[in-house]
Design a protein that fits this description.
5 helices, alpha/beta, 160 residues, Alpha/beta knot, tRNA_m1G_MTases_N, rRNA processing, transferase, 44% helix, EC 2.1.1.177
């Protein structure tokens, strides 16, 4: 299974980028033996429209354009479902075992995701009810993907 992380906004150099790069590298390495062929990040430019709904609509179009190959779309949104790390790992394993070719995780811009995109998603997850900057959401998601690979491989990184 391939994993794509589609994120609105570009990371600038700094500690968030270093953290994301570290977890991406770890997830790629530990995911290969588990059948995760590719884990990639796709960054999209933020919309500069004057109205929030217009920004979300423009960003939804850009996101949709890169989701054409995804069998599963998972949106990250503060109104989504909260799951623990073991459940997340099991869900990734079930996706890979179930023949999903590509799972795409979508992170919106400062205004969030358009309702049309949320309606298209197969699942919506959240990292708590607080609002997070996209840089931190990326780091959290990449860490959870890495953690899932360690749970599935029996590595001691995760402690229940």
């Amino acid at each position: 299974m391939d994993i794509s992380i589609v994120a609105v906004g570009r990371l600038k150099s700094g500690p968030e980028t270093e953290l994301c790069d570290r977890y991406l590298s770890r997830a790629r390495k530990s995911g290969r033996p588990l059948g995760l062929r590719r884990i990639e990040m796709r960054e999209l430019a933020e919309s500069h429209a004057s109205r929030a709904d217009d920004r979300k609509g423009g960003e939804a179009e850009a996101i949709s354009a890169v989701l054409s190959g995804a069998d599963r779309i998972v949106c990250l949104d503060e109104g989504g479902e909260m799951v623990d790390s073991e459940a997340f790992a099991g869900w990734l394993r079930a996706g890979a075992d179930g023949g999903i070719s590509e799972m795409a995780f979508v992170i919106g811009g400062p205004d969030g995701l358009a309702p049309s995109l949320l309606a298209r998603s197969h699942r919506t997850l959240c990292f708590g009810r607080m609002t997070w900057p996209h840089q931190i959401v990326r780091a959290l998601l990449l860490e959870q993907i890495y953690r899932a690979t360690t749970i599935l491989s029996g590595h001691p990184y995760h402690r229940s």
